[in-house]
Amino acid sequence: MIHFDNVSKRYPGGHTGLSNINLRIDAEEMVFLTGHSGAGKSTLLKLIGLLERSSGGQVHVNGRNLTRLKNRQIPYHRREVGMIFQDHRLLHDRTVFDNVALPLVVSGLGHKEIGRRVRAALDKVGLLHKEKSAPVTLSGGEQQRVGIARAVVSKPPLVLADEPTGNLDPELSKEIMELFTQFNKVGVTLLIATHDLALVRSMNQRILTLTNGALSHDSKTEYRDVT
Amino acid sequence: MSLKSQLFSMPGIWLQRHAQVALSSLGRLVGNRLSSLMTCAVIGIALALPVGLHVMLSNLNTISGGWESGASISLFLDQSISSEKARSLAETLRQHTRIETVELINRETALEEFQRLSGYADALQALDNNPLPNLLVIQPKVEYTTAETAEQLAQELRLLPEADIVQLDLQWVRRLQAITVIAQRAVVVLAALLSMAVLLIVGNTIRLEIQNRRTEIEITKLIGATNAFIRRPFLYTGFWYGLFGGLIAWFLVALSLFLLSGPIAKLAQLYQSSFDLSSLDPNTVLVLLCGSALLGLTGSWLAVGRHLSAIEPS
Questions:
Q1: Is there a contact between B14 and A75 if contact means CB atoms under 8 Å apart?
Q2: Structural contact between residues A85 and A42, judged by C-beta atoms closer than 8 angstroms
Q3: Which of A198, A223, B276, B294 is most buried, with most CB under 10 Å away?
Q4: Cα separation of A128 and A118, whole Å?
Q5: Does B223 sit within 8 Å of A78, measured CB to CB?
Q6: Are the Cβ atoms of B224 and A75 closer than 8 angstroms?
Q7: Edge-to-edge strand order for the sheet containing B73-77?
Q8: Residues of chain A contacting residue B16, judged by C-beta atoms under 8 Å apart
């Protein structure tokens, strides 16, 4: 699903975001990405969602070589990658329903189909009764669940989450992680960046660790090394 | 949904989407009633100026056109021609295919009239003979009253051996028309300049709108919206600004004409004329509304092209 081949990212001014990353994530995997802030977690996610382009190496996502993708093709790539953010990034002048519907509206789906899918997604995150509310009237955990519903409503094969539980207490974080596990069970590939190590360890999934822009630890290869 | 049915439903969805975007951008304008109204009013005033001048000029053309066709030819006969001869010449000219009427003002009558009206009676009596020539006032037939045909006829009359001076009294009408042509050109220049002003007004308004909705644009791009999708509501907003500006311009011109019509009717009455100030004709209104909507669309297109590509999510 995701394949990094010797990928690096340097920012203008000489700051290095990522250096020589080699990485392979298969379809239907659920992977946690950890590391200190500034280690390059967000940069790695941005390269996958094409918010930024790599300065060296090749990035393949879902069979597509992102290095060669033209700018005008970026929107179509992003429709296949659901993205979840720490600050939710909801539109505050629209209802919960309209926020979740946005990816489908953008893809040009019909009215009925949109209604059906949005309600299904809201139902999955347990917010069907809040569809007419404004996002500001919801709690932090609820807003994050709206963000999650929006990320999965168009049924993308890959979902990226950048510190999805950053502002939530442990209880709510646990709930969000359970949601992710459910999505993973129905075949969605997930890559979740977080610095909450305790939470990550409790999930018993593959963990990637970034240190100063380099991949310093991969629990999958470690496991293989052991066998 | 099968591919076939998806393909068939596409145009319907596309139209539905456009109608929705058009209405929602209209709704947004109505939501910010005061600022939208001010923008539209500025556009309306800018457009009302050239349109109003255009209407005034076409009215002037109508009047001066009437004057031109009313022009008659004054044929002053040579001093040596007697009143007898003048009468028979008038008779001959009446048979002319291009002449409607011929009025003979013979020199004796003319002199009497002049003495009576000018107050120079004593001075005139001191003269040995009548200095005034016989005069034929010739009115061409309606088909021949245009400037050129009347001039042709005048030329023909000049060739008569009895003719001394032939005057076609069109000079001042011509001058007026030349001035009108200059004024019309000036209106075109003014319209071009003010259209550019409208482009800038709409462009700037849309630029501010883009800045205000920066977060929204970023989020929509994150979710996979194409540039066309993001551009669409701004283009519709520009279109609405232009269209409403045009409607306001129409209203302003109509109102001004209404306010002017009273005094002008009074003036026309003083000239014993039944001139009616013609208002905006449907063609002008159509051109005004289409043009203003197009200006709005172009203005927002320019702004959107420049500023949308600069916004990328991070």
A1: no
A2: no
A3: B294
A4: 9
A5: yes
A6: yes
A7: B99-105, B135-140, B73-77, B163-168
A8: 110-111
**A91 to chain B: nearest residue by CA?**
B216
Hunting for tokens 């709206």 — which residue is that? A146
CB contact burial A49-60 (16+ within 10 A = b; e otherwise): bbbbebbebebb
pTM of the predicted structure, to 2 decimals: 0.75
pLDDT of the residue at A225: 43
pLDDT tens per residue, range B224-262? 999 889 999 999 999 999 999 999 999 999 999 999 888
CB contact under 8 A, B222 and A102: no
In B, which residues are within 8 Å of A108 by CB distance? 10, 13-14, 17
Biggest CA-to-CA distance, chain A:
54
Q: Which domains does chain B have, with CATH numbers?
A: 20-67+174-307 (no CATH), 72-169 (3.30.70.3040)
- Containing A141, the helix (H) or strand (E) segment is helix A140-152
pLDDT, mean of residues A102-121: 91
Task: Give A-chain residues touching B215 at CB under 8 angstroms.
Answer: 89, 91
Question: Which sign, positive or negative, has the C-alpha torsion A89, A91, A95, A98?
Answer: negative
Inter-chain contact B14–A108, Cβ cutoff 8 Å?
Answer: yes
- Read off the tokens for A69: 């993708």
Q: What is the pLDDT of residue A224?
A: 47
Kindly determine whether residue B225 and residue A106, on different chains, have CB atoms separated by under 8 Å: yes
Smallest Cβ–Cβ distance between B222 and the set A78, A107, A109 belongs to: A78
What is the radius of gyration, based on Cα positions, of chain A? 18
Q: pLDDT at residue B16 above 60?
A: yes
Residue B2 — pLDDT band, cuts 50, 70, 90? very low
pLDDT of residue A142: 92
What distance in Å separates the CA atoms of residue B74 and residue B157, rounded to the nearest whole number?
A: 10
Q: How confident is the model at residue B200 (pLDDT cuts 50, 70, 90)?
A: very high
Task: Tell me how crowded residue B115 is: count the other CB atoms within 10 A of its CB.
Answer: 15
Q: Which of B74, B307, B100 is nearest to B204 (CA)?
A: B307
B220 closest CB neighbour out of A51, A77, A102: A102
Q: What is the ipTM of this complex?
A: 0.88
Residues of A with CB under 8 A from a CB of B: 46, 49, 51-52, 72, 75-79, 83, 89-91, 93, 102-103, 105-111, 113, 150
Torsions phi, psi for A60 (to 5 deg): -110, 130
Confidence of residue B69 (pLDDT cuts 50, 70, 90): low
Domain coordinates of chain A in residue numbers?
2-80+156-226
Residue pair A56/A101 in contact (Cβ under 8 Å)? The answer is no
Interface size between A and B, measured as CB pairs under 8 A: 59
Cβ-defined contact of B223 to A79 (cutoff 8 Å):
yes
Class of domain A2-80+156-226: alpha beta
Task: Write the pLDDT tens digit of every residue in A186-197.
Answer: 999 999 999 888
Helix (H, G, I), strand (E, B) or coil at B19: helix
